[in-house]
Amino acid sequence: MSRFRLAIESDLSDVFLVSLVVRGVCNRLGMNAADMSSVDVCAVEAVTNAIKHAYHGAGGHEVTVEIVPAADRLDLYVRDEGDGMPAQQAAKLQTGSRVLDFDPVELKAVPEGGMGLQIIHQLMDEAVYSVQGGTNCLRLTKFVRPAAPKSIYETT
Questions:
Q1: If the chain, 156 residues long, is cut into consecutive pieces of 10 residues, what is the mean pLDDT of each piece?
Q2: Which residues contact 15 (CB under 8 A, 6 or more apart)?
Q3: I need a surface site. Which of 15, 39, 97, 109 has the fewest CB within 10 A?
Q4: For the sheet containing 126-132, what is the strand order?
Q5: Long-range contacts of residues 143-152, Cβ cutoff 8 Å, at least 24 apart
Q6: How far is CA 7 from CA 31, 80, 137, in A?
Q7: What number of H helices and E strands is found in the chain?
Q8: Domains along the chain?
């Protein structure tokens, strides 16, 4: 399967397109359902973050997702030319945080932000942020674990 690039305008109503394409590629690679959902959630989160934080919700900008499938892995490169990710936020992709450790009964304890980076940290096999020539790039990697073979007794 060839690599390809999807570009959307910085409009949250277009993010569903990223989900459709990413799910299709994951399915084609034979990823199991849990990994497919993980990649989908993280791709949508990364694009949403680019629109909300790099572009501050302003339309008229481009967010690209380059999809690079291989037999054993799937790499997604989410790029934008907006404001860069603060260093302490980028570090959370590598080290994680305790932002999801809260008492769900206590509504005041629910954090206002930062959950998306932790979700990406937990669900992806690798997540690396870099800036190259004024372009922000978040590389998300998921190693392919094939779906379990269907039983001869299962119906489709």
A1: 92 97 93 95 97 97 96 95 93 70 62 76 95 97 78 61
A2: 8, 44, 47, 48, 51
A3: 109
A4: 4-9, 62-69, 73-80, 135-143, 126-132
A5: 143/72, 143/73, 144/29, 144/30, 144/31, 144/35, 144/70, 144/71, 144/72, 144/73, 144/74, 145/31, 145/32, 145/35, 146/30, 146/31, 146/32, 147/30, 147/31, 147/32, 147/33, 148/32
A6: 24, 10, 14
A7: 4, 5
A8: 4-143 (3.30.565.10)
Class of residue 42 by CB neighbours under 10 A (exposed 0-12, middle 13-18, buried 19+): buried
Would you give the distance in Å from CA 105 to the centre of its chain?
A: 28
pTM for this predicted structure: 0.85
Fill in the amino acid letter for 83.
D
Tokens of 7: 């570009």
